[in-house]
Specification:
Length: 208
Amino acid sequence: MLLALGATLIVIVALLWEVITPRIAETYQRHKARRARVPITDYDPGRERRAEQRARQLLRSCVNDEEWDMYRELGFIRVWGGLADGPEQGGTQATRAGAPYAYIIYPHKPVVAFLPQTRDLLAEYCVAFPDETRPYGSARLPDSDDTLAKWMALTGDERHLISQANMHLPGRQIDPKQVRRDLWRLTQWEQARMRRLAREQRGTTPAS
């Protein structure tokens, strides 16, 4: 009787062990995972914000006051075209009256060529300037660095940039309605800026 009872208990314990063992092992692994130290990395979550701040300072030191105010308030820069007169006359060196066309530079978007008088869109020029800094190099520069790279390329050697860029018809990547809306905003902004400058000039002119 006792022998049979003992054998039964042994069988029950063996069955329970088969059931409980996987759960014990799983619980132990979870415990080890919770106690494992999180690996320390050099990733800095504030790096992109600081990089953009430095990029804005650099952009501010390179462009003129009008272009900086334009970028700061509208989010893009207009560059006058001068391809017909040669690259040495291009970019910001072209006068408003003599520039047959102009460009809108957006961060991380194609450069858009347009006619200033009619606001007709001519083409989109896709160019890319990857971030090759180490150890955080990536496919994207900070917004202001990307804008500055396009600005420098257009004002330094417009002909080369246009010849190397992938040209598409308007609307390939940027909604033409958005561009025309931005051109309207640019016109309103310029008019307000001219009125403000005129008031400032009258305020500093000595009374006759």
